[in-house]
C-alpha cells in the first residue's frame, strides 16, 4: 500500500494488520514500514530474547569453554534530537 493511501485509510490498515497480518507501506521505489498488530509484535519480540542461544550453549560440548569478550571503547558524540 502506498504511504498516501495508508495515511488516508489508517484505520483500515490497522484493522487489516490485526485481522490479516502485517501490512507493507511503500514509498516510491522502496519498502518503508510494516504495520503489525500488537499481538504479533509481542509474540515476535518474545522469540528473540536470546534464551534459545543460552540453552543451546548450556548443553553444548563446548559449554566449559571460556570466551573473552573484548572491551571496545569508542568515542561518544552528542546528538541533537
UniProtKB/TrEMBL annotation:
Q: Which Gene3D superfamilies match?
A: YefM-like domain
User: Where do transmembrane segments lie in this chain?
Assistant: none
The record, for InterPro entries, names: Antitoxin_Phd/YefM, YefM-like_sf
Function noted in UniProt: Antitoxin component of a type II toxin-antitoxin (TA) system.
What protein family does this chain belong to? Belongs to the phD/YefM antitoxin family.
The entry's protein name is Antitoxin
The species this protein was found in: Methylobacterium isbiliense
